[in-house]
Amino acid sequence: MFEHRVTDIFFDLDHTLWDFEKNSALTFEKILFDHSVKVTLDDFLGVYAPINLEYWKLYRENRVTKAELRYQRLRKTFDAIGAVVSDDIIHILAHEYIENLSSFTHLVPNALEILKYLSPKYRLHIITNGFQEVQEKKLIGSNIHHFFDQIINSEMAGVKKPHPYIFELALTKANVEPRNTIMVGDSLEADILGAKGMGMQVLHFNSNREPDHDHSIMINNLIEIKRIL
């Protein structure tokens, strides 16, 4: 199904292996309760989710800083739902969100099964745009850290996917040719097009329900990898 022999598989982390939506919701449930922020969780999350995606796109494009991302996604959400929350509380929430996020350890359905299936056959790695201080904790907390040889994050690389250098760094550290790899990720822009531009083979895990495309094979459940590899 893939043109070249595969020796190494690179995974994105959030939304691909680690269940970001579920773990993020649990984190917000905790910190909003702890600080007596009177909002309905579902209303908050419904507005927050697209704002967060928008700010991550701006962050990938270096149009906002990490601090701006963490503050503005909350400020804009509270403003949009008409909740009066002070900047002081927002800064506390932004800090505690990062502190607590990795304490929740839910994985995407079948993530553990597919890692167990692939690990005897291939070398596995991570390429993530997440923050270094959080991503290691996520991997360790969810008990999947040991599956991966190289773990590359955007802070280590100094650039974010889809910038070519983060893929180049990952390939160098793994000591593998692009054509012998597969990048598995949920983002068409950051994971699929970014890796494909470097000559890597790609597999789109369509957890975000993006429109069909012809850039790569698309799957809707990680267990489908078993029929491909």
Account of the protein in words:
By secondary structure, the protein is α/β, with parallel strands linked by helices. It is elongated. It has helices at 20-34, 41-60, 66-81, 87-101, 111-118, 132-141, 154-157, 164-174, 188-196, and strands spanning 8-11, 123-128, 148-153, 181-185, 201-205, 217-219. Strands 3-2-1-4-5-6 form a 6-stranded parallel beta sheet. It folds into 2 domains: 8-19 and 107-227, 3-Layer(aba) Sandwich (Rossmann fold); 20-101, Orthogonal Bundle (DNA polymerase, domain 1), CATH 1.10.150.240. Helix content is 47%, strand content 13%. It has 9 helices and 6 strands, in the order βαααααβαβααβαββ.
The Cα radius of gyration reads: 18 Å
Overall SS class: alpha/beta
User: Could you give the count of β-strands?
Assistant: 6
CATH topology of the largest domain: Rossmann fold
Q: Note the run of SSEs as H and E.
A: EHHHHHEHEHHEHEE
Number of helices: 9
Runs in which pLDDT lies below 50 for 5 or more consecutive residues are: none
Strand coverage percent = 5-15%
Helix/strand layout:
Layout (H helix, E strand, L loop, with lengths): L7 E4 L8 H15 L6 H20 L5 H16 L5 H15 L9 H8 L4 E6 L3 H10 L6 E6 H4 L6 H11 L6 E5 L2 H9 L4 E5 L11 E3 L10
Parallel strand pairs: 1-2, 1-4, 2-3, 4-5, 5-6
Helix pairs in contact: 1-4, 2-3, 3-4
Short note summarizing the structure:
This is YjjG family noncanonical pyrimidine nucleotidase. Its EC number is 3.1.3.5. With 229 residues, the protein is an alpha/beta fold.
